[in-house]
Specification:
Number of strands of chain A: 12
Number of domains of chain A: 1
Low-confidence stretches of chain B: none
Oligomer: heterodimer
Largest interface: A-B, 39 and 29 residues
Mean pLDDT of chain A: 90
CATH class of chain A: Alpha Beta
CATH topology of chain B: ABC transporter involved in vitamin B12 uptake, BtuC
Order of helices and strands of chain A: EEEHEEHEHHHEHEHEEHHEE
Helix content of chain B: over 70%
Distance between the termini of chain B: 34 Å
CATH superfamily of chain A: P-loop containing nucleotide triphosphate hydrolases
Structural class of chain A: alpha/beta
Strand content of chain B: under 5%
Helix content of chain A: 25-40%
Shape of chain B: globular
Order of helices and strands of chain B: HHHHHHHHHHHHHH
Largest sheet of chain A: 6 strands, mixed
Strand order of the largest sheet of chain A: 6-7-8-3-9-10
Number of helices of chain A: 9
Structural class of chain B: mainly alpha
CATH architecture of chain A: 3-Layer(aba) Sandwich
CATH superfamily of chain B: ABC transporter involved in vitamin B12 uptake, BtuC
Low-confidence stretches of chain A: none
Largest sheet of chain B: none
Mean pLDDT of chain B: 81
CATH topology of chain A: Rossmann fold
Radius of gyration of chain B: 20 Å
Distance between the termini of chain A: 51 Å
């Protein structure tokens, strides 16, 4: 369980707190989504969890352990994070890349053992990319690359998994495939925290949505609770309507047009 | 062995082996044991140090253009040597030491400059790279100013540093360069997996349990130590640290543990070959080794590049 309690995060030279008293929990076996407009504090919460941003007040705990009391390696053994950006300068083999997920588990000589190989095999299978193992990472498509990154996080074998905008550059099919993968991972018992601004997709997959606005929780609850036109209009500052998806009956957000008169 | 046999005076391979065992013509023994062999070994060590340093830096800085000399090490070492010349030091050991101290001082200066950026740029390796370039530029300017009013002897000494040469090889130099390379190079190989993780970027490194600020700084210092040791032993030998890691990658190596070892071997081979060329192309004149490495390195690199496409 990932628990964020009264969290305050702020950056140097910023006038307002990036995260201003946010609380929520992402329990095991559930897919929890962190949504909200750009700059609402989603990524800052992920950074605080990784101890890459200063926690001014409150706490982030994983299975009741405060992240500030853990070493980087201890933290990496209980939560795996797929960050939004990754700037690898050099390609590597997919299998070797996924094997880096075992880094926090390696012993003094940093040499992989049998368990590590096994964990890598399992991660490749779970992410459905067993056939890519011998490819170079620079020869992958966008969808394959995201699966490889998720496999690396799965190889960490942590009880909690955090993903920051994993489908930003993907087309519809790859996006759906990633969401299905995350949903099945949550059902297998992981605590999955997904940061995403794609509210409609999130509403179809997530068990709980935490909607942030200007560093605070604007509203949180089940997708049905969240998809409220008035609340969403005030958060996104744009006219919207909520419809029902005719095929599956899930609530869907439709932003309206507001043409410019130049 | 070929490199030991060839030079201004050729010694047959049989005579080389003989000399190594202490047989044969005393002149041949002297040439092989005291001149050629230490020189070849020194060249190999310098190449190995630069190759390993470059491979580690490119990985941890995530920059294919990173190389040991970009860290300000070379400029600092040259300043150290020039200052030593200028104050009239003539002892070889002291000049070497001064160059080494200058190189290390430049690295710490670069680290200090990178901190000026403050906490908003904390852990950002790019800042470190820029700081190294700035310190290097400052050191070069300092050398120019110093040389503008220096005596001809000082200028010649300084030029020697800037062109690089394995000519002044002695067994003492070989011994202490070996020690440094085994120590710092070994440490880099030990932390090679951490470099693998660092090469994924700071956020990903953090998610895998690596404090990119601390371990990045560690790699930076070790790589700088290697570079400073090679510069103090043989002056500036360009291009090796930049190109050799790419050649090692073209050989199909990806993970940094084998990559650093391979870069050391390729670097050693390239420098020994370049030094052989420097001695034999236009005897008895010796060409500057630093220029030869670039002349050899560029076409070699282009061939490798073509083959892989």
């Amino acid at each position: 369980m990932i628990r964020v309690s009264d969290l305050v995060v702020s950056y140097d030279r910023a006038r307002t707190n990036a995260v201003d008293g946010v609380s929520f929990a992402a329990p095991r076996g559930k897919l929890t989504a962190l949504a909200g407009p750009n700059g609402s504090g989603k990524s800052s919460i992920v950074r605080a969890l990784l101890r890459r941003a200063d926690i001014i007040d409150g706490a982030v705990t994983i299975d009741d352990r405060d992240v500030r009391t853990l070493s980087y390696a201890e933290l990496a053994r209980i939560v795996a994070v797929v960050p939004q950006r990754e700037e690898a300068a050099f390609p590597s083999r997919v299998r070797e890349y996924v094997a880096l997920g075992r880094y926090p588990h390696l012993g003094l000589w940093r040499a992989p053992a049998k368990d590590d190989d096994l964990a890598v095999d399992q991660a490749l299978t779970q992410a459905g990319i067993g056939d890519l193992a011998e490819r170079d990472t620079d020869a992958l498509s966008g969808g394959e690359w995201q699966r490889v990154r998720i496999a690396r996080a799965l190889a960490q074998k942590t009880p909690a998994l955090v993903l920051d905008e994993p489908t930003t550059f993907l087309d519809v099919a790859h996006e759906m495939a990633i969401f299905e993968l995350l949903s099945s991972l949550a059902r297998s018992g992981l605590a999955v925290l997904l940061v995403s601004h794609q509210l409609n997709l999130v509403a179809r997959f997530a068990d709980t949505i935490v909607l942030l606005d200007q560093g605070k929780v604007a509203i949180s609850g089940s997708p049905a609770d969240i998809m409220n036109a008035e609340r969403l209009e005030s958060i996104y500052r744009w006219p919207v309507v909520i419809t029902r998806d005719p095929a599956i009956g899930a609530p869907a957000l439709v932003p309206l047009r507001r043409p410019l008169n130049l | 062995m070929l490199a030991v046999a060839n030079g201004a005076v050729s010694v047959s391979l049989a005579a080389v082996f003989g000399a190594l065992r202490g047989h044969g013509d005393p002149t041949a023994i002297a040439i092989v044991r005291d001149l050629r062999l230490p020189r070849v070994v020194l060249g190999a060590l310098v190449g190995a140090g630069l190759g390993a340093s470059g491979a580690a830096l490119q990985g941890s800085l995530r920059n294919p253009l990173a190389e040991p000399y970009l860290l300000g090490v070379s400029g600092g070492a040259a300043v150290g040597a020039v200052v030593a010349f200028a104050v009239g030091v003539s002892s070889d050991a002291l000049i070497t030491l001064a160059a080494f101290a200058g190189g290390i001082a430049a690295v710490f200066l670069a680290l200090a400059v990178s901190r000026v950026g403050g906490r908003s740029t904390r852990g950002d390796m790019r800042t470190l790279l820029i700081a190294g370039v700035i310190v290097g530029a400052f050191a070069n300017a300092a050398i120019m100013v110093a040389l503008a009013r220096a005596e001809p002897n000082t200028v010649r000494g300084a030029l020697w540093w800037m062109m690089g040469s394995a000519a002044d090889a002695t067994w003492e130099r070989v011994a202490w360069l070996t020690a440094t390379i085994l120590l710092a190079g070994g440490a880099l190989v030990y932390w090679a997996r951490e470099i693998d993780v660092l090469s994924l970027g700071e956020d990903t490194a953090a998610s895998l349990g690596v404090d990119s600020e601390r371990s990045g700084r560690r790699v930076f210092l070790l790589a700088a130590l290697l570079a400073a040791a090679t510069v103090s032993a043989a002056g500036l030998i360009g291009f090796i640290g930049l190109v050799v890691p790419h050649i090692a990658r073209r050989l199909g190596l990806r993970a940094h543990r084998p990559l650093i070892v391979a870069a050391a071997l390729v670097g050693a081979t390239l420098v020994v070959a370049a030094d052989l060329a420097a001695r034999t192309v236009a005897p008895p004149t010796e060409l500057p080794l630093g220029a030869i490495t670039a002349l050899l390195g560029v076409p070699f690199f282009l061939v490798q590049l073509r083959r892989s496409v």
